[in-house]
Write a structure and sequence with these properties.
It is globular and about 40 Å long. It is mainly β. Strands 1, 4, 5, 6 and 7 form a five-stranded antiparallel beta sheet that branches. A two-stranded antiparallel sheet has the order 2-3. The protein has one domain. It contains one helix and seven strands, in the order βββββββα. A hairpin with a 6-residue loop joins β5 and β6. The protein is 14% helix and 40% strand.
């Protein structure tokens, strides 16, 4: 991915987990990867924290109107997805 800026954050999956295209629902401690190309094409992937294999979050494809919005979108997604259980 040329001239893109990947962002990653570790978070605790929401109750019920997160649906992926490749393996269905995953849960627990996960790492979110977002990446935006200069044309706004957005990549959303997730993996188990510390694992090697990334999975595509179900949905999309997604395109940002302005690739400069990538950083704030990443923070919004982490805020929505991070749901530690009591």
């Amino acid at each position: 991915m040329s001239e893109s800026t990947e962002r990653t954050t570790v978070f605790k999956a929401p109750r019920g987990g997160l649906m992926t295209d490749e393996v269905g629902v995953i849960s627990g401690d996960l790492e979110l990867l977002t990446d935006a190309e200069p044309d706004g094409t957005l990549t959303l992937k997730v993996r188990y924290d510390g694992a090697d294999e990334w999975y595509t979050i179900q949905g999309g494809p997604f395109t940002l109107h302005d690739a400069r919005d990538h950083e704030v979108l990443h923070e919004v997604l982490v805020s929505m997805l991070h749901r530690p259980q009591p």
